[in-house]
Amino acid sequence: MRRFLYILGFILVTCSFVQGQKVRLEVSNLQPQVGEYITVQMTSTIGSNFKMNFPDEFQSGMNVMSGMRQDYMNGRSNTIYYQTLSGFFTAPGVFNLGPIELRSRKKKYLSKKVKVNVGNQEDLKSGQKRQVEPSKSMPPVFAETNCSENKIYRGQSFLLKASVYSKKEFSSIRNYSPYVIDLKTESINYRPKKELDWEPKKLEGQQYLQLLFEEKVIYPQEIGPMNISPFEMVLSGYGNYVVRSKPSRVEVLALPELNQPPSFSGLVGRFEITSSISDTVANVNEILSLTLKIAGVGNLQNTIAPSIVLPEGIELYADPIETKSYKLSASGYKGSVVYTYPLRVLKNKKIEFPSTIISYFDPVGESYISIETYTKTINIGLQNDTLRAYSTETSNAAIQNNQEVKSSKTADDTASNAKSRLLFFLIIGLISGILGFIRIRKKRKNKASLLNNEFSIPSKQEVSHSLKVALDPGLETALVLSKMEQCLLSYCSYVLAQDTLKLSRNEIYLLLGNYLSQESLQEVQILFSSLDSIRFGNNLSEVPFKALKINFKQTLDNLLS
After folding, report:
1. CATH code of residue 183
2. Of 555, 471, 531, which is closest to residue 12 (Cα–Cα)?
3. Last residue of a domain, which of 388, 409, 428?
4. Taking burial as the number of CB atoms within 10 A of a residue's CB, which of 84, 113, 143, 453 is the most buried?
5. Per-residue pLDDT for the chain (561 aa), expressed as one digit of tens each?
6. Under 8 Å between Cβ of 91 and 34
């Protein structure tokens, strides 16, 4: 901020703008009780780099409000910078708050000290100091991240909630700075952001409003301590409050190597497996299908086709087809994944399919569990009445053994079904190709549509180029301000991804608040104000353009970095 205040002060000296520079400290209550919240406000006319040390007995809350406003006095406009915070004292006594220290142009400015007399809340009967109740240490507005687990295994998921709590309902949210997880993860939105959905919530005997801002299911991809940095946002409606959560931590453990079965492929959760076969009676060269269904809750999205053991006389006709049917829950994905294996019959014989085994890790029981399917038997080339009768008599028993058994067919019907299944796989392949082609054409069409759009969102490189144009030494003096403003508007269009020429200055500031930090937003506002002050209040021949260009470039470079 020092660079920007320098340019503003340098230019506006000519305008006789800065007069009566002040730094002021105000406290809402000079005689609070222990645990009672007070408001501390710092203001100045020279900048916002406030520095002030608080007593150790003062505990600051998370809610901070800062910004700038315009005051008018004697027909002149003055910029007032302010910062407001709240907190409470944890012990009685007389304390000095301040002074505020603020530096500008190598000069130091100090405010006056403010004396605060904190009451001790003595019990009238015993004369002993009361303990501050836990509820009194809770600020009126605060934020937090909540993790459903503090220790998990790799492949296991947990639910992360980002919440804001307030005594009053705010009408808008801006300048959201999300939390950052320092380990590689798979993050899935469990519920969308709720910007205005405040719900009553009782905390430690106090009535609050809760804004469940974000819920995500997190799958860690790495092991070790997972640190979750605070998130931050500005709440507006009853003043502007900057709320910041506390950091969180989750320990991600490696899956145990001891007793890990060979059939384990990375499944973590609780699962079961079933199998079925399309026919128990078939002919040579007929296409059958073996189906394996894995159902449960956990990291179903990471399943792979189980390895199956093919008996003699059976070969894999094509790659297995995967069909997913699950949805996200608070405990991970819940549902099933089905693998269909196309098989071709090679020999006339009775064939028995061995069981298929898979293993998963149960994080609750902290152990590996192996499960398997029932064996399957089919008869090849035995198409007679005796076999059909046998198949009918044993169908009920087969169903009880988790087999899907169909009635036997004649030789002509079976051959017809084989052709139908082959045709089915060919149609699936054709449809997939057509859909892929349509997607490619759609992408090309969308790209062409963007190219034909009247307004083109400037890139970072284009903003940098417009900056070079504005700083061209050969540019006429009268055009410098215009090119600078064009460059600044180009930067705003780059950030907002829309045409800022159609927006008012206030609309631009409001939208930028959703993407820039408060400090960066102030930098943009100061640049616009400086250009306006020169354009409407000065003789161009008296403007120090060299200093203006240097500081304008430094500011834009900082914003683009």
Report:
1. 2.60.40.10
2. 531
3. 428
4. 143
5. 444 444 444 344 333 333 345 788 888 889 888 877 788 888 888 877 888 888 888 877 655 667 777 666 666 767 888 887 777 888 889 999 989 888 877 788 888 899 999 987 553 334 444 444 434 456 778 889 999 999 999 999 999 999 999 888 888 888 888 899 999 998 888 876 656 788 898 887 788 899 888 899 999 999 999 999 999 888 887 667 788 888 899 999 999 999 999 999 999 999 999 998 888 888 888 888 899 999 999 999 989 999 898 888 889 988 899 999 999 888 889 999 999 999 888 888 788 888 899 999 999 999 999 999 987 777 766 543 344 444 434 434 433 443 333 333 344 444 445 555 555 555 555 555 555 544 444 444 444 433 344 567 888 888 998 888 888 887 777 678 888 888 998 899 999 888 877 777 777 888 888 888 888 888 888 888 777 767 655 556 667 777 788 888 888 888 888
6. yes
Q: Is 537 buried (19+), middle (13-18) or exposed (0-12) by CB count in 10 A? A: middle
Six-digit token pair at 77? 């406009």
Find the domain containing 203 and state its range: 140-253
Question: What CA–CA distance (Å, rounded) separates 415 from 408?
Answer: 12
Last residue of a domain, one of 372, 406, 428: 428
Backbone angles phi, psi at 205, to 5 degrees: 80, 0
pTM above 0.85, yes or no: no
The answer to the question of residue 439 being in a domain is no
